[in-house]
Structures are given as structure tokens and as C-alpha cells.
Fold:
Amino acid sequence: MILLVNGNDIASSRNFYFEEKNKLAESILLEGEGLTFDLFFQNAENKSLFGNEVTLLVENFFSKNKTNSIDVKRTVEYINNNKDLNIVFWEAVELSKPAQAILKNATVKTFSFPQVLFTFLDSLRHGNSETLINLFHELKQGMEVELIFFMLVRQFRLMLGQEGVDKIDELKRMAPWQLAKLQKQAKQFGGEKLKSAYQKLFELDLALKTGKIPYSLERSIDFFLADL
Structure:
């Protein structure tokens, strides 16, 4: 069994990964970043003393290593030539289709956010409250409000931090076109409006964590969007 779990919905992919892990009689966890073929091979050939099947759990192997590196190529070739291996790969990102297809015999589970989430985040701008509220209510039919709020805070944090790329790891991993889109979105707000909106989100987050939120989180987000 070769299983590849990936996707930008990390919470869902991680839950699925742990569910699969809990089903295993015996497993070995390997950190994928910098994992050499020799270490992988040694563990893959390891046999249980009790006769149980040993499953390798490998985290962030493809996203943290260059796919054209010798160790990755040798590891993939070994896996593709040994159908009886038991390996579960978990990636904290959504791999591209070519990257997902590199393991010929793998079952791939991809956990992605709904497309409307990205439409909602891209639509964040001053004077667009009606559209944003409609998108938010559409989005919450399939996502937890707490997760939507987290993504909302993250988007404003990224907009504020886009001028200091070296300070935020998430910005370092973005493609140039993503950074350009983020910069354009930030300019549409303007510096003061952007800081003010982020401050309101910070205060809402603090009220939520301390149990002092005056309304439900859903209602509070409505108020926030209406005031943009």
C-alpha cells in the first residue's frame, strides 16, 4: 500500500493522516526533509519482530526536497519497483498533478479548500462589502466559521507583510505572480485602512479567545465585512 495524502486544507488532510496512522499495527515515522535514500531503504527493509507489517510514515518528503535530487529519484524508483511496500506520505501542501503522479502505484488523497474561499479572499477590498458577505455566507455552508476567520486574518497579515518579504515565511514560498496580486490587493486598501482592518481582526480574535466576544463569530464577521 502506497498512500499519498496532500492538500492545502491541512486540518482535513492531517486528520485523515492520523486516522490512517491509528489503524496501523506497527509504523516508523520519518521526517522527509533531507531524508536520504540509504536511511529510507534501511527502514523500508526493516521487518517486525512480531510478524506485523511495518508501515513507513514519511512527512513532507516531496515538498521539502528537490524532485530531481539523486536521493528523491532513487527513492521513487525503489518504491515504483516494489509494489509490496507499505508507505504513507503526508505533505503539508497540495502537490502539483505531475508531482502526485510520480509514484506510479500510489493512492492519492487530496484535501483542497473550496474554490469560493479563494474568490472570497481575493475579493477583500474597500467598498466590496455586499459581495463579501454573500461569499462568506456561501462559504460557511461547507466550511467551519472558525477556519474562515483564520484564513481571513491570514490574508490581512500577508497583505500587511508583503513589503517585508524576508520576515514572513509564507511570503517566501509564494510565486512572483502571487506576491504581485497580494501587493495590488494591499494597495487597493491603502496603508491606514489595512492596518485599521487588521487591528479590528486582532481585537475580535482576542475577544474570541478570552470569551468576551459580544456576538457569535459569524455575526461578528458580518459586521467586520460590512465595515470594510
